[in-house]
Amino acid sequence: MKRLSPTPWQPRFRYSDALVADLCAIADARARVALLPLPADESLRLRHAAYQRSTRSSTRIEGNSLDDAAVRVAIAKADREGSKAEQEVRNYWRALDRVEEWAQGSSPLSEAWIQELHAVVIVRGRGRRRQRSLFRDEEVPVVDTLSRRIDYAPPRPDDVGPLMEQLCDWWQASEQLPPLIRAGLLSHRFISIHPFTDGNGRCGRLLATASLWRSGYAFRGLLSFEEWFASDRERYYGALQLGCPVDFYEGRHDPDHSAWLSYFVDVIQQAAADLAQRAEALQAHQEPPDPHPWEGLDRRSQQLLTRLRACLAAGEGQAEQFKPADLEEWFAVSPTTAKDWLRHWQEQGLLEPARPGQRIRVWRVCEPWASWVLSQPQRQE
């Protein structure tokens, strides 16, 4: 039986002219997007649209059949009801919030945090949410749904823990790599390890997003690259396989990642160029920016407004109003935490009670932020 080397993981790849050109093009698009003085309502709208496309596309890669309208409604609902497909998209949106929170902090990439992220992604029953998912303790071959042929045989369960430890150690020590290379390698290796029984593809794409955002490639939260993966799933799966044999130990344990990185970076380049072009077109027809810049809001306030924008797009309730229980479900927090957040937002001037009284049952967004949420509702997002 083959055994893995206990030495640190050292991924192999080489820089081609095309790869370097794509890296430069992405850096250029990033700079263009960062410098654009977009009005606050457009920043909010673009951010919501990017979150929605990422959620719809990443879950669709794994076979989620909800159409765009159903995805909008599922995201907007603040409950744990509905089909597994509806819960998948709701969970992925919530996981993007977790990724953003981690990316703006300084805590290291760890096995524990990845397990926490997976616990958000995966669909559970109506019981108490698990804080962390355990790594798998069984074989989970990836099987073609039609032919029942094994497309990929991941590593044995007893190798998962050491492989994940190696991966996190490598990421911590790889800051000298270009951010796109680092994110691509992290995502590919994670998906190859396949540490959970389900949700590995979604978690792997979220880890790529997390790595990019931590490295300063967040594109103001407006970039969605998952839709480019979803547009040609066969090419995506083929790029992941790298032409290796089915068994992890026969090639995927130590492949040349050059082909995957060429594909991954090319996809990001297309997504970034498209975003820069659309953002520049919007900015060219806008008035000067609002005196209350979107970028001046803290991360959690931006997440709340984006959530409310999602409700508006789905036609769910009054977009500028919500209940404390909605907040608890959207962000998977306790009533005490939700109460603390609401108090902070009230002191900040972002929220106010919808009706006077000692017990506040409904909150609403103050101006000018309410206008941002409600602006241009007729647009298709």
Summarize the structure.
By secondary structure, this protein is mostly helical. It has helices spanning 17-35, 40-61, 68-76, 84-103, 111-121, 157-172, 179-193, 200-214, 226-230, 233-241, 258-283, 299-314, 324-331, 335-348, 369-374; strands at 142-143, 150-152, 321-322, 351-353, 363-365. The chain is built from 15 helices and five strands.
Descriptive terms for the model:
mainly alpha, about 55% helix, 15 helices, Arc Repressor Mutant, subunit A, about 375 residues, Fic-like fold, 5 strands
Question: Care to describe what's here?
Answer:
This protein is mainly alpha-helical. The chain folds into two domains: 267 residues, Orthogonal Bundle (Fic-like fold), CATH 1.10.3290; 81 residues, Winged helix-like DNA-binding domain superfamily/Winged helix DNA-binding domain (Arc Repressor Mutant, subunit A, Orthogonal Bundle), CATH 1.10.10.10. Helices cover 55% and strands 3% of the residues. The protein has 15 helices and five strands. The strands form two sheets. The protein has a three-stranded antiparallel sheet. Strands 1-2 form a two-stranded antiparallel ribbon. Strand 1 and strand 2 form a beta hairpin. Helix 6 packs antiparallel against helix 7. The longest helix has 26 residues. The chain is globular, with a radius of gyration of 21 Å. It starts with 16 loop residues before the first helix and ends in a 7-residue tail after the last helix.
